[in-house]
């Protein structure tokens, strides 16, 4: 006999489906976990975006308010400057009038001569010129009785 080799039969091994099913189930579980985490991150991102939009809106409103307040402050400062100029001009007028006392308007009330140390004034929310006072005895009595500072006794009888 000779050396005759018997052919080895090759068997096709069918891979086990159990390990593949386990791997697929593990991957599916990991995918579900990752999808859940992605959904959480997306929700957090949306929440943060909403918060950013709200803060941006609040910042815009605050900036508008600040601009409005700055404008109001500018108007008030301008008014203060104008009033300062008016006061300075009135001080100069008072000094000029005091330097020439005969130039001060006057009136007689109850045998007393009073001088008026202003050109205009406001009394009880009404504006008057000195000429109104000189012509109005009731107003003269009321202001003298109240002791307003711009009416001074010039001569007493």
Q: What can be said about the biggest beta sheet?
A: 3 strands, antiparallel
Fraction of residues in helix: 55-70%
The helix/strand series, from N terminus to C terminus, equals HEEEEHHE
Strand content: 5-15%
What's the rounded overall pLDDT mean?
85
Decide which structural class fits the backbone: alpha+beta
Task: Supply Rg.
Answer: 50 Å
Tally of DSSP helical segments: 3
Poorly predicted sequence stretches spanning 5 or more consecutive residues:
none
Distance between the termini: 174 Å
How many structural domains are formed by the residues? Answer: 2
- Record the strand order, biggest sheet: 1-2-5
> Quick one: overall form?
rod-shaped
Extended strand count: 5
Which labels suit this protein?
rod-shaped; alpha+beta
Question: What can you see in these coordinates?
Answer:
This protein folds into 2 domains: 19-99; 101-157, no CATH class. It is built from 3 helices and 5 strands; from the N terminus they run H-E-E-E-E-H-H-E. The protein has helices at residues 17-99, 130-135, 137-146, and strands spanning 106-109, 112-116, 120-123, 126-129, 151-156. It is rod-shaped, with a radius of gyration of 50 Å. It starts with 16 loop residues before the first helix and ends with a strand. Residues 1-23 are annotated as: Disordered. Residues 24-72 form a coiled coil.
């Amino acid at each position: 006999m000779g050396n005759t080799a018997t052919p080895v039969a090759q068997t096709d091994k069918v891979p086990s489906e159990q390990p593949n099913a386990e791997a697929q189930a593990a991957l599916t579980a990991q995918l579900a976990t990752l999808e859940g985490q992605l959904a959480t991150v997306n929700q957090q991102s949306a929440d943060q975006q909403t918060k950013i939009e709200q803060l941006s809106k609040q910042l815009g409103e605050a900036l508008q308010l600040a601009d409005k307040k700055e404008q109001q402050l500018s108007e008030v400062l301008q008014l203060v400057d104008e009033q300062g100029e008016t006061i300075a001009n009135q001080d100069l007028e008072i000094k000029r009038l005091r330097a020439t006392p005969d130039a001060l308007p006057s009136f007689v009330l109850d045998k007393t001569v009073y001088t008026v140390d202003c050109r205009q004034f406001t009394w009880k929310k009404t504006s008057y010129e000195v000429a109104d006072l000189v012509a109005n005895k009731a107003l003269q009595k009321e202001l003298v009785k109240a002791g307003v500072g711009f009416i001074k006794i010039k001569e007493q009888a």
